[in-house]
Amino acid sequence: MMLLYDYWRSSAAYRVRIALNLKGLPYEAHSVHLVKDGGQQHQSDYRALNPQGLVPLLTDGSFRLNQSLAIIEYLEDTHPSPALLPADPQSKAQVRAFSQVIACDIHPLDNLRVLQYLTGPMEVSEERKLVWYQHWILEGFKALEKMAASYADAGPYCFGEQVTMADVCLIPQVYNADRFNCPMTDFPRLREINDNCLKLEAFQKATPEQQADAT
């Protein structure tokens, strides 16, 4: 059985939980609390497993892999059904591009370690931190709304009738937007996709509040 080093509020780990559930893969979750004890991800035993000191980390036998998109693509290669990436090269590239807007452009700027640095060494107030957080989500969502709207007639999900890696990445980011009170009125297509995905058991089981370490 695969082992997922996880944290209930980590949106990157949330993506991997969704992917594992969609593919029907059993796994054991091991909580790495990102706040307790000064952040358990910084402890030497975890750093020995993942030198970057972030979650998620997936182990499959003796194989270890960090970075959520790399993990999802590994699962896609090793367990190709149901597919989370289209077979067509151009469609596949579009799904990857959508996913990377979230995983590479939006999420890193609002990650916990960035927020802690803002309110710590940079001495940014909580109010200004919230402005920062909302700004980068809304900037990214403007592009994603246009990308997703062009496929609105194709089906209920980001790229049509089939759930893809794009949906797997979007739903945790919408969760974060709601958590930090980002106004979503300008993103009706993203909200619609979110509602459609959350009707699926694989997404429901992966929500942060359903995890054993949720507080």
UniProtKB/TrEMBL annotation:
Residues 88-215 form the GST C-terminal domain. Residues 1-83 form the GST N-terminal domain. Keywords: Isomerase. The keyword Isomerase applies. GO terms for molecular function: glutathione transferase activity; maleylacetoacetate isomerase activity. It comes from the Bacteria. CDD domains: GST_C_Zeta (cd03191), GST_N_Zeta (cd03042). Pfam families: GST_C_2 (PF13410), GST_N_3 (PF13417). GO terms for cellular component: cytoplasm. Belongs to the GST superfamily. Zeta family. PANTHER family: GLUTATHIONE S-TRANSFERASE YFCF (PTHR42673:SF21), MALEYLACETOACETATE ISOMERASE (PTHR42673). This is Maleylacetoacetate isomerase. The gene is maiA.
